[in-house]
Fold:
Amino acid sequence: MRLLVPGRSGLPALADLDDAGLFRVYACPDGRWVRCNMVTSLDGAATGPDGKSGSINNEADHVVFEVLRALSHVVVVGAGTIRAEGYPPLSVAAPLLGLRHDLGLPDSLPVVAVSNRG
Structure:
C-alpha cells in the first residue's frame, strides 16, 4: 500500500520501479522468513466468477507475484487451488532470473502443496 500512495513512505511510486527496484522493495531482511501473499476482491472473495483465483488479479498483481516468486525458495499453494486451477509447474520470468541467481537461488521454483486432509 505504501507504494500506491507515493510520498508517504519515501519510496518511489510503484509505476516508477523496474524489476531490480521491485526486488529491493520486496527483499526479505536477513534471517529466515515466511511471506504470505494473496489477492482478494473487495467483498473478500478469493476467486472470481469462474471459480479461479487468477480471474480477480490484474497486471499489477501479476508483476508482484512474479517478483515474489523470483525471491522465493518455494511457493506454497493449497491443494484445492492446485486441483481447481490445474496448477502447472512454476517458472521464474526470464527477466528476473539474473536477479534470482544473484541471491544464490536456482532456476527451478518448487511448489509445496498443503492440504487439510493429510
Q: What stands out?
A: Strands lie at 75-78, 111-114. The mean pLDDT is 83.
